[in-house]
Amino acid sequence: MADPSSYRPRPGEIPDSPGVYRFRDEHRRVIYVGKAKSLRQRLANYFQDLAGLHPRTRTMVTTAASVEWTVVSTEVEALQLEYSWIKEYDPRFNVKYRDDKSYPYLAVTMNEEYPRVQVMRGHKKKGVRYFGPYGHAWAIRDTVDLLLRVFPVRTCSAGVFKNASRTGRPCLLGYIGKCSAPCVDRVSADEHRDLAEDFCDFMAGRTGTYLRRLETQMMEAAEEMEYERAARLRDDIEALKKAMEKSAVVLADATDADLIAVAEDELEAAVQIFHVRGGRVRGQRGWVTDKVEAVTTGDLVEHALQQLYGEETGDAVPKEVLVPALPEPVDPVQEWLSGRRGSHVSLRIPQRGDKRALMETVERNAQQALVLHKTKRASDLTTRSRALEEIADALDLDSAPLRIECYDISHLQGDDVVASMVVFEDGLARKSEYRRFQIKGFAGQDDVRSMHEVITRRFRRYLAEKERTGEWTDGEDAEAVTDGATVGSAAPDGATVGVDTTDGMAVGGDTTAPAPDGTTTPARDGLGALKDEDGRPRRFAYPPQLVVVDGGRPQVAAARRALDELGIDDIAVCGLAKRLEEVWLPGDDDPVVLPRTSEGLYMLQRVRDEAHRFAITYQRAKRAKRFRSSPLDDVPGLGETRKQALIKHFGSVKKLRSATIDQICEVPGVGRKTAETIAVAFAQAAPAAPAVNTATGEIMEEEEPGRPAGPSGEPVTAGAPDDRRGQET
């Protein structure tokens, strides 16, 4: 626990102007970001008598080791910069809302030639129209099924669409009239896009005009005695009305508004949001958060607004935003919202009428969400705390290990040897901190050497980062580990810095869309990616209190030896052996045996099993990639675009292999020099043709160097009788 007076700036140093400030801990990790109309007045509040501070604020200022600030021109700029830094640094003491589920949206991919209607989750994409969020995916599918009768827009995947185009036969929906079948040119691209636009207009609430138009067309068809067409229009109108009934009118005058309600207690808060478009509730979502700082309801509303509308691909800002309490001050927030929308936004508290009644409904939903969350989580919080305390007692640690890192080695009979590093903070998996390694120091299977290499590489990077930020000056030369260092460059001790890959979820900011297990395509983690000029260490900058290795005494000894060689003696190490679930400590002849009912043992098992899962997933992906490799991968300068063009032109690698250089040159973008290189690559990769005995017609084994040949030139194989000499050679 630090003394705030040790890093308190002098009052004259702090400017009396708007700005954003950051508190950092001893590892230069940003732990809190805040904004202020007057930096001098706001920061002075943190450096008063500790007894007068809110308990969470007291914890924050005693955890911090420094504070810094950035001056801006206006409070709106401060609001924008605060949100950017919260997203970038993910500070532990800021309010961070967690979605209580991944909400599905009804999406229309207007960025495609033939727009597609589908269910989407996760991050929003540019050029896609979103409606929702919905509580359940089946609710979207029910709505879409009703609307496809009137708006037969494409819903099939790209593969199904291409297959139908190739065969000239539409899918089942095309046959039953729920798809206009642009895949077989029943409608043009422009006509299909018009259908998609009408679909989006209807979903956006512009329903009255469209229904009146259909009713007019139905009456005209009836007058002209086109009764089948009139009946079809009648059924279309009924389908649209049925779809509209699924979202009842709650506000008159086709109002567009978002209603935000907050339910809170001393420890946690729940936020519920109703999206009203065209007077109808089009979606609902909820967030929960731990109140790790002293915040008012207005502060919670402000953070919710930032998260809801802050992203470039975030929700569109409606004309009205109704809230239970206004942020203080409210003018910068309202100005920011208006800037996001491009026109004036009304941010206010509803006082009476339908909007007040609907706000009460949203508030009841927020209260129920908080009760449900606390019911699910109360025992979990207690259990995690007890588990960490049991681990600290069993391993004789000074305090509970709030950050635990676990390492596991994975391979298949000595091939594709990889390692994983998973991180648990406060007993919960922190997947953004997961890391993956390829073992590069040696070939073959040796779990002990592999563990030593991985621990060395991980903590060498930690020490290098500490020196780069000026916090560690113990004499080790880390000058070689600087910005611009590349994968495979020499480290100070002469070892080679291997390829460290990540799961892509937090390095530089998911990120790509995560897969269901939380991983994405690995990215190379060169040391040049370590940004510390502005104090932003990304990779291995934060030390754990406990290192867990998957294995017994040998693996534990290797990990401890790696830390000792780096001069690190303040990080505990233990191992968890699978056979009897024994906990091994460095230098001990006997393991620590925790009771089978121990919450501490259960947490160590969870950490170990997660490291094993993450390692084996990476190892399998590497093996699958190696199996999918082709000679084209070894052609220098041949990228994915031209590889795909070659396969598309010839149809398969087999046909490409038998093609001549002139035929390869016919592929767009492939010159003669590249074609010759491709031909050479295939020739080198192809197995040699088997030799044939001209006398017998039998296939002979390939001659090995130094092996004598038979009378007709055929090689003499070991262990086979030689007809001339009557003996084995």
UniProtKB/TrEMBL annotation:
Keyword Transport: no
Claim: Cytoplasm is one of the keywords in the record: yes
Molecular function GO terms recorded: DNA binding; excinuclease ABC activity
Gene Ontology CC annotation, any one: excinuclease repair complex
Keywords assigned: Cytoplasm, DNA damage, DNA excision, DNA repair, Excision nuclease, SOS response
Top-rank taxon: Bacteria
Gene Ontology BP annotations: nucleotide-excision repair; SOS response
Domain GIY-YIG: 16-95
Domain UvrC family homology region profile residue range list: 259-563
Principal subcellular localisation of the protein: cytoplasm
Region feature Disordered, mapped onto this chain: 509-535, 694-729
Subcellular location field: Cytoplasm
PROSITE patterns attached to this UniProt entry: GIY_YIG, UVR, UVRC
Coiled-coil regions, chain positions: none
Pfam families per record: GIY-YIG, HHH_5, UVR, UvrC_RNaseH, UvrC_RNaseH_dom
Domain UVR, first and last residues per copy: 208-243
SMART domains per the UniProt record, alphabetical: GIYc (SM00465), HhH1 (SM00278)
Transmembrane segments: none
Function of the molecule: The UvrABC repair system catalyzes the recognition and processing of DNA lesions. UvrC both incises the 5' and 3' sides of the lesion. The N-terminal half is responsible for the 3' incision and the C-terminal half is responsible for the 5' incision.
Family listed: Belongs to the UvrC family.
The protein's assembly and partners: Interacts with UvrB in an incision complex.
Protein name: UvrABC system protein C
Organism of origin: Streptomyces mangrovisoli
This protein's encoding gene: uvrC
